[in-house]
Amino acid sequence: MRRDYSEGMPDVGRRISGSLKYFRKKMATAGIAMALLGQAITGTGQHQNALTFEPEASLNKNKYIVLIAGDEAYRSEESMPMLAKILAARHGFRTTVLFSINPATGFVDPDEHQYMRGMEQLEKADLVILATRFREYPDDQMAYFDQYLQAGKPIIGIRTATHAFRYAKRPDSRYARYGFTSTRKGWENGFGKKILGETWVSHHGANGKEGTRALIDGTKQQKGHPVLKGIKEIWGITDVYGIKNLPADAEILLWGQPVDGMTRESAPVWGKTMMPLAWTREYTADSGKKGKAFVTTMGASMDFLNEDLRRLLVNACYWAVGSESSLPENADVAIVGEYAPTMFGFGTYQKEKKVAE
After folding, report:
1. Is 70 exceeded by the pLDDT of residue 220?
2. How far apart are CA 15 and CA 1, in angstroms?
3. Does the pLDDT at position 9 exceed 60?
4. How far apart are CA 354 and CA 220, in angstroms?
5. pTM
6. Are strands 127-132 and 64-70 parallel, antiparallel or unpaired?
């Protein structure tokens, strides 16, 4: 039986609606007009499942980032396009967002675990940002993801990416080892453990009741770690995830403190320990090639109302593609266009929406 964590969410939404209205008002006065961004929809007919954003020629870094949205609870279908626009308009990265869609209707459908098109974009990608949960993509699509990792290319995992895949219906898939319940030797606990450093463990905080305050590792920031550049305050409404067995090579940059409530002013939950919240590591693919990984277990769409969480992800992109030397002192992460994220929870996504909406 699937546990439903959305209970009580409407009340939480009311508690934070004031701050959200303030953010939207502030957002409307800032940023580049969406008209300056080149936007393209990829696919045909009912299979239009990708958005591509082209940077202005004067900003173009000649780097290509593919963002994959596909989780039932934390609204990656909202947050990934927002990040893609910032990366293109503010920082000169060409970006494409791939969505989970219902093949029968063509609507964005986070509950569609098995249908995916467009993964061939990874052949050209310099970086992949993954925000999926329990996906079971067909082999012809997973082949591109596997080839990407075998090449030792960088990856960023957001929130549920620690349990990005689950091969429950097709355990005979060539890529079943990616599933978070994998017992294959060398791939125990699947992609999350093998590549990112950790799989799904637990909700350390009370989901839907306790938020997260990030505590920055001051020594790493003082030593100039690029991912922490300009980071001052990160907090969010999602709870802290439990972390149990991070590998020794993981460099923890942020620690997550559970807080008693879901606002910026919420006090720490005394007696609850901190957990790793963001880290980097070097993974080793089956090919023997090594690649960079950055992970944060924050990342609901409403978490990204926090400016420094957006900055953390932008910084991580520069680090991942080896462009640290051009990372601004205080990276511009102002929202491009409108961003009106909705509350997390199962079954609460915006229905009957196409990728361009």
Report:
1. yes
2. 30
3. no
4. 42
5. 0.89
6. parallel
